[in-house]
Amino acid sequence: MTKAESSICSRAYLPFIFLVCLSVNAPAQTFVDVSSEIGLPALNPAAHAGWGDYNNDGWVDLAVGGHLYRNDQGTFVTTRFNDDFGHDKANGRSSIWLDYDNDGDLDLYGVTFDSYAFRLFENTGADDIFKDASDRLPADRMTGRSVNATIGDFNNDGHIDMYVPGDSDKDGHEGEHDEVWMNNGNGTFAVAWKNPDSHLSRGAAACDFDEDGDQDIYVGNYRLLRNYLWINDGMSEFEDLAETYGVAGDGGQGAWGHTIGVAWADLDDDGHFDLVAVNLAHPAAYQDRTKFYRNTGPNGAWLFDDKSDSVGLVYRESAATITFGDYDNDSDLDFFLATCYSDTSVLYRNDGNWTFTDVTAASGFDKPADIDLNHTHQATWSDYDNDGDLDLLTSGKLFRNKGNNNRWLKVRLIGEHGVNRAAIGAQVRLKLNGKTLSRQVEGSTGDSNQNDMTLHFGLGAHEGPVVLDITWPNGVRQEVQTETNRIVTVHSIAAPKVTKTPAPTPDPGLVGHWRFDATDGVLVKDSSGNSRHGQILNGGRSTKRVAGVSGAAIKFEGLPPEQRDAAGCVAVPGLRKYDFTKGLTIQMWVKFAQCGADQYFELANTAETGRGPGWRFGCYPANRFMLFSGAGYNTEQEGEIQAAKQFEPGVWYHLAGTYDGSVYRAYLDGEELAVSKPGQFMSNGRDSMFLGSFGGDVYSMDGIMDEVKLYSRARDAEEIRQDATVQPVSAKQFTMPVVKSGRAMLDDLASPAWEQAAPIDDFVTMDGSKPEVSTEVRVVRDEDWLYVRFVCHEPLIQKLVVTGAGRDGALWVEDCAELFIDPSNGKAWFYHWIVNAKGQIWDGLHSPAGTDAGYDSKAVAKCVVLEDRWVCALAIPLNAIDGPQPGDVLGLNFARERRATGDLQLSAWSINDQGFHDPLLYGNAHFASPWLRIDSRGAVCADVNDKGLNAFSLSLTTARDLPTKLQAEVRMDGTLVAGKEIKVAAGETPKLVLPYTVPAEGQPTFEFKVAIDGVVSYQSRLQAVKPIPKKAKFRSWIVPDPLYEELLTDEPPGLRSQGSLVWAHLLDLPMGRPAAVRFATRYVSDEMHRDHSLSGFRLVSSEPGRADDPEAVKRWNLTDVPEGPLPRPPPGEPWPWPLDPDALHLYFTSIESYLVSDAADNMWGIYSGDEHDDGCVYNAARLMRNPEGYTYIHEVDKLVRETYGGGKWGLPKGNRNHDPNPYKWIALYRWTNAGLRDRQRRLYELIQEKAPRLVVVSVDPSGGLYPSEYSLIAPYADVFTHQVGYPNGSHRWRAGVGCLSKIMTDLTGKEFWPCAHIEHYNYPDAKPAEVLEEFSQVFRNGGTGLHLFLPDIRGGGKLVGDTRTTWFGSPRRYHTIMAATRFIRTMPKLKLPDYERTAILYNDDTLGARPHDGPMTTPETIQACYTMLGPVARSWFKFIDCPQVLSIPSLNDRFDTIYLPVARYQRPEIVEQLRNFVEAGGTLICSDPAVFETDHLGNPTTAARKEIFGVTVGDEFEGAELMTLDPASNATLPLDSNAFRLTPDAGTEVLIAYSDGSPAVTSHAVGKGRAILFGANPFVAEHVPNEGWRDFFTAWVKAMGAPTGLDIWRFKLPDHLIWQEPEQLGVCLTNNRVLWQEEQPSYPQNFDVHGTYTCSVAPDAMPDTSNAEVAFADGRLTDRRKSIFAEKRAPTNYEDYAKPDSTWMVSWATTDPVSITFDLQAGRNLRELKLWFRDTLPAVTVEGSTDGRQWRKLGRAEGIAAGVDIHDLVVDLPGKQANRYLRANFAARQPGEKLSLIEAEVWAE
């Protein structure tokens, strides 16, 4: 026994009173190096150290560097271990103590330095004798290397297991799979789990941070990789949820950190373990630095907050490991951070509240001078001398802590009763002065070091007893009371025996219940008690809290897929432990904001992909409500239940889906809607469930969700019915009372007449509780005015806040009452009044466009202040709120802001935790009508067209005795835009909803009319709300002063006179014809081929002569441009690499075969390949990560390493998330360039030799900017092409097509025809004018032609909604493209400026550092540089690439100025060339503060940076702004890039300062020239829209001596090329007109008359039958609004439709005459009959009738033999007389001629 040690097994806890003593700050501590005086030799500082009392004598011993030192009561003795295992003694890397055999003494695990051997040494219990037990480790363990480990009982079986991070494979290549070695309980280990990914992992640490009874593991990954947080399911399975919990790292620019050490510690004394990841971080801003994460505990769903910025950690580049301990015994944990390079390690004192102070020097580590606290991976705490304070081992030395007078406690835990003997994983908590101190017995800390397992608590000045709350790894809780200043040993106790049967679960199988009431930021709490809390992803940017079924609900904004990064949804993790294959129930309340046949509403899902594995629950196109599960696209295992339901917007529905292990069921509002067949499939899917979207990205819900429940069983119908009968809380409502005159009530606020008004007295606060003081409202109207009285009770009447701001002053900062009125009940805008205690008024109108404070309602108010209340009344003219009519329903809310208490107290009639302004919250006031209720006239607001809020909604309120005809219509400026007519049977109270669209421009007047039995019963008008200004509606670059003819030369157009390149998707007849049937649109092969011919389209194809209509190709003289092929692998085998010798052989033999084929004469050129360069790079990394079956990739790896990798950098092993090493990517790109360049040379020479007439077209890289060294490949192609994309979205201030055109034209000097992706998948909803601007950019930047790709491949990936091509989805865009491509064939060449004294370096070296799938930051910087110098400043310049820098004899002869927008990585020879350029008089302008950080091999080159730019680049800092060029103006420019401190050398001039006065832009004279450096890169996309930045660069370019204002930037193709939709007059009575514009359908000019048609002869396909009425809404002749959403067989590009063409048309094989009669329900003046058809249309005669008996001829048309194409026909009708019936008579046909009608439209005046 040492000191005051006592042994406590278990005893009853005795209550006592704490003596609360505040801990005082201890004086600075002093640490002294005592290594030599206590017998420790010089230790290896690179070795990891572990403390453990292996001989159980109470004195902790030390293992380090393969040596074992026994602690002999404060001095150390070298043991025989070092002799027994001498072959490892000098090279031990890791030392981890563990009691693997549970015999009560510690054994030792280690890894050797030299051989990376895994070693386990068993403690025999005899004096210092260990035996080698390495054979107990798994025989099938990793064959590669590991340098670290952590231990814990991961399956809670009472035996210690090991987590072994992988480092590199057996050949030393980075990346190995982490493993869990599970203890078998018999002294052996087995590999129980392996990380599927291979990373270079370093530190690992285990902790039950979420207090669920099992240890989770955090792993730090090196080489800029994201870290892991392995969540333990308690069953030996782990799931990485680092991103979910917020601890993966920042991942800026596609790279994370070089994490080495990781550690758990409770840094804020809240009882929960926080987390630290120590990152070695080079100065590059994109690398994560050391991260401190706060555990938010159960209230925050155990998520982590990043507290790194508040810690105060001084940047240490080589931070390596960390260890936590309370060195000053003041009760909170301090830390020591060790470094592995030359920067000094540091000791930080915890000052509380996540702030720490550097006390390194004050603690004695600067004395003596020879103390070297660096070059180490070693940092551990122990109380080696048992004096109660912690001593520190680091840098190969042991530093003794001199201590202070603060008190302490040490706790030694011993595991028994199913707990591992060393008690690894046990947690001890101690409450002290309002804090909860927490410690755990660790398996490792930092970089696989190990602190003393005896836990240490500093207690400050506290002298009384304390209570230890111990949680053992088996979940048993134990309390122990003890005195302080002693060592306490505690043995675990047995789990208590359960003698009482647990109460049954109140709701069996309930996984979680999410009510959305209790919130904490983005947390969504689970009220089931299972702690399955959810998190709102994307920061809740597209979600908000609204009123729900009960309390609050969550509203999703329904963002489209292109905005998926902003789409909010709720993620609920931790579901993998539930088996839904045996049973599932998902149920919820929903209210949709918009409902349409084309809508996807993903409500809840766990599916990994669209068709599994996992399950999906939602509402899908074609009005389907569905629960679905699949096993994947390539399997036939699927199960589902579908139910048809047309949902209405704004209505609450209760939806439920169940699965009982065999059968699916769907429930709507508690009633079973559909049942599947038995034997259905179900799979579990992801660990997380997503609510509101699919996986947090696409198919985002648009509407409100509430009361979500998930079960792991199928609930029965009665259980679901009970939940569904809890009806949603309806909006508060009342009928508006009417008085004859209310003016006297305003004069007398106490008048008894107010008793006739409707009372409102149920105000609540934001949390749903009653307010402290009450507010009572009365509301009433007379014929012309609305009257509202507020009685505001106030016990602090003398403290009323009244400023007297006056009419329309800031009354909201006073005690005030507020009134809100939504006059149309459209839930989008409202009028607002505020009245203060002086009777002063503020009024305004709030809409999506903002607040119109100029609105004057002419309201009047009166107020009186009494002893205990103040009373005010408002009188508002009804015409000021758009004159409500009988039947109207107004949305209203009443609110009060109380300030007399000194703080703000809000209460309202309807309110939630966001306030009371949202119209969705408002109650309703009904202006009574005998028959009618106008629920809403809609929002009359263009900004909510896509939200379903523009809809005229009405219902009959009383059933009538006789059948009634109900008619409703909406007109816009007199034009009918929506109409509906229905028959109402006796006793029915139907509801009508008429959606309408509000134009984006102007404020038209809408008229709403209702007629009952022909008598107008309701009529009102509303002017459309002013829309949000569409500042960014044009998403391409805007040329405000365009020129065209002035910029043309007399030179002919050159090669483009022959046409343009186009992919032949529009001529894919097997795809196009079925699509035309579905869209019911004209599609004629000969016409499509003619269009291609007129534009001179050269058809890009996979092989020559491939055509669906060879005769049309020949007739219209269309020629091919076949592509050089790549081999396709057998199913299941990896793709061969494009530069594989076999692939090259196929490539050239195929092209040679093209040249001698029958189709050779019809070839125009050879296309080198689609994205072959992309495939080379991507597949090289992919294959290197998983090379099985493809041995050639290892040969490539060796070649890359030898030729471009400096002997050390080979292929990256996977893409960004797996291997972001920039030097590997640089080497790979350079090697790929050389290989593709050689292939291109061979191709060009082959064509020149055998077919010189053919045009050689280059490879077509995917969208982006790549390090392809274009100047070197320029000689080997006639036409260059390159795709252009907008990965982050197109907008007004991007000119990507122009930038790429300038780059490629400058670097190649050849024809450049970019593939400007203006399709919907890349440029969503591109309008014709935007397309024309994109084309114009090509020519104003030197490009010479166009390359087009027109399918909508994003839509193609959908199950429905695939518009196939621009022809179907965007006719305006299609015709504009055709007009432009024909026009440019004769357009002369442009006059380009002859100024080329300025250059921009297209830096292949730095571009190559970006992983293939890395962020586009570097390319976007180059684009921003182009934009500022070109389209903004209108200067002229030339792009040059790295090969040109090396090949141009004298850069100074060509250029005066060279810009370097990016230059982090640079070959030394290029640096030297740039240095020579400056010395010879040039100006070098670098906007990249990381310029010349390293060369292409990773060697530092910052010395060259300093020499050329004369500046030292320091740390990044926040809040910087840049002064303008005119410092006298004191104006600043915002910085959206990382800002770095610049320290100029003597003689270096400061040109511009940051707003804090420090240098921001410097100029350094070098020889005759100068080098200018920006401390923050100004070339970022966010700067371009800023007018200040645009002015800055215009002035900057002038100051650099370059011209500005050049006219070439004004070039624009003429607007007459933009095609406009022909005007269509009248209305479509069959309600099936669909107008497609930019991939979006609209339905203008439809009038739903609820008509029918009949066929005289039954068609061949049902359900259309003879002699039976077919409703327009159901018939195949009028089903276009359904057919456009037809489902495909699979969500894959170019996949066929699931149903045959016959589904969408009506056909007759019989040759007899056929008549179709349309019943229009009322007389109409008819204009025309439109027909779409295929096969044979005979002559058609159209007749009209008023009664269906007497017929008269209206029109006739001749027949057409359409064949397999889809034609259309219009029969003009006179329109002079009203006809209820229209009959189309189709004449008899010849034998074999089939009549197939696809669609029919009947049009009237």
Whole-number radius of gyration? 39 Å
Mean pLDDT: 87
Structural class assignment:
alpha+beta
Largest sheet: 16 strands, antiparallel
Low-confidence stretches: 1-27, 87-91, 498-504
Q: What portion of the residues fall into strands of 2 or more residues?
A: 25-35%
Q: Shape, please?
A: globular
The first-to-last residue Cα distance is: 106 Å
Quickly count the helices.
28
Q: Helical residue percent?
A: 10-25%
Number of strands: 105
Provide an overview of this structure.
It is a single chain. By secondary structure, this protein is α+β, with helices and mostly antiparallel strands. Helix content is 14%, strand content 33%. It has a 16-stranded antiparallel sheet that branches. Strands 94, 97, 98, 99, 100, 101, 102, 103, 104 and 105 form a ten-stranded antiparallel sheet that branches. Strands 53, 57, 58, 59, 60, 63, 64 and 65 form an eight-stranded mixed sheet that branches. Helix 10 (1110-1115) links the parallel strand 74 and strand 75 (1119-1122). Helix 11 (1141-1155) packs parallel to helix 14 (1222-1250) and helix 12 (1172-1185) crosses helix 14 (1222-1250).
